[in-house]
Design a protein that fits this description.
This is GNAT family N-acetyltransferase. It holds the Pfam family Acetyltransf_6. One of its GO terms (molecular function) is acyltransferase activity. With about 375 residues, the chain is α+β, with helices and mostly antiparallel strands. Strands 1, 2, 3, 4, 5, 6, 7, 8, 9, 10, 11, 12 and 13 form a 13-stranded mixed sheet that branches. Helix 10 links the parallel strand 11 and strand 12. Helix 2 runs antiparallel to helix 9, helix 3 crosses helix 4 and helix 7 packs antiparallel against helix 9.
């Protein structure tokens, strides 16, 4: 069978209609869901967030695309002045599993690694972050590295909240959330309703999307993220990415956007992106002046009902930081997220440089663990 690795695409590349269709076909048959690398979000990110050093590797088999991996060249690896390549995890990307076609996982990874071995721009080693430890990519990476006697190492892992249950929303709420917390939240809902008309809405009218995007950007910017300069609306490129990603996801049937209004004004909003049987919780914003009513928690309760009552959504990744106090108290399931360091091969000076970089990074990490007593 024919398998080919295509030259990586430059950072300014925007997928044309033909290539976008190929990406969409791959995403539809992906072994592991990742809304952030689905063509709607990936195209929007390339257009508005990409910087120099971005490459997109494609792998084909029998004229079908079986692998898609966005990569960046990184001048440093953490605190080490050692260059490497890594999967592209921009500021608004919270899962890093590449798109690989179901049933072709190992073939896709052979193609990725072969292209990186041959690429003159691929320095050091491959650093992968944001992968599911139990996912299809992790299994394929381990199998191919063993097969090729290629060095690899898990360098970090943590758990984050995930929603995956066959229970109805009401049953989940009753069994997974403490009774004291449920009572307090019911009290807050009643107190909020005393201020005016409270309405929960799920976006179902595409014509309303621009206004919903405006409302979300304004709500987020009015809070602590705006003060810190990390809100989407603080940077024109980030805001443009958000609008483009939402519009493309809506057109593809992947957008899941929820809001709570008080007298017609948004006081909490939540944006999720769907892919395959699951979804990824992307961003949340709420009116911090109404913090005494916990609007962020209230919209997560609404989201729980929206997800559990939708048969098309089998699970949702919170995309939250580990030990997140709010979402961890509401969602009982966990997803283990890992980072890997993978050796790259090559010839001549490139092989020597890559071998040395991999050995140095591993050695420094081992020494640090020894010093901390983590042998």
């Amino acid at each position: 069978m024919d398998m080919a690795s295509h030259p990586s695409l430059p950072a300014a590349h925007h997928a044309g209609p033909g290539q976008r269709a190929r990406w969409a076909a791959l995403a539809q048959d992906a072994a592991e869901a990742n809304a952030f690398y689905a063509p709607d979000m990936l195209d929007a990110a390339i257009d508005h967030l990409a910087a120099d050093g971005l490459h997109v590797i494609e792998v084909e088999k029998d004229d079908a695309l079986i692998g898609l991996l966005p990569l960046t060249v990184q001048p440093r690896h953490g605190r080490l002045p050692v260059g490497c390549v890594g999967n592209w995890m921009h500021d608004h990307c919270f899962f890093g599993a590449p798109m690989v076609r179901r049933g072709h996982e190992a073939a896709a990874w052979r193609g990725f690694l072969a292209q990186l071995d041959a690429a003159p721009w691929a320095r050091g080693f491959l650093h992968l972050e944001g992968l599911d430890a139990a996912g299809a990519n992790a299994a394929a990476i381990e199998a191919v590295c063993v097969e090729q006697r290629r060095g690899w190492r898990e360098i970090h892992r943590y758990e984050r909240a995930m929603l995956r249950s066959e229970l109805s929303a009401d049953a989940y709420w009753e069994t997974q959330v403490r009774s004291k917390k449920r009572k307090e939240l019911r009290r807050l809902q009643k107190r909020l309703a005393e201020l005016g008309t409270v309405e929960t809405r799920l976006l179902d009218d595409g014509a309303a999307l621009p206004l919903w995007c405006d409302d979300f950007l304004a709500l987020e910017a009015a809070g602590w993220k705006g003060t810190k300069g990390t809100a989407l609306g603080c940077k024109p490129g980030d805001a443009a990415f958000f609008r483009a990603a939402c519009a493309a996801a809506l057109a593809a049937g992947r957008l899941h956007m929820l809001r709570i209004d008080l007298d017609g004004r948004a006081i909490a909003m939540l944006v999720n992106f769907r892919h395959g049987a699951g979804a990824f919780s992307f961003k949340i914003a709420f009116d911090e002046e109404l913090g005494r009513f916990s609007p962020g928690v209230l919209i997560e309760i609404a989201n729980l009902h929206a997800v559990q009552d939708d048969p098309a959504i089998g699970w949702m990744d919170s995309c939250a930081a580990p030990d997140h106090p709010m979402i961890d108290s509401l969602w009982a399931e966990r997803r283990t997220i890992v980072q890997y360091r993978i050796a790259l091969h090559g010839r001549g000076a490139a092989r020597m440089q890559r071998h040395a970089a991999f050995a140095v990074a591993n050695g420094v990490e081992t020494l640090a663990r020894y010093v901390k007593g983590q042998r």
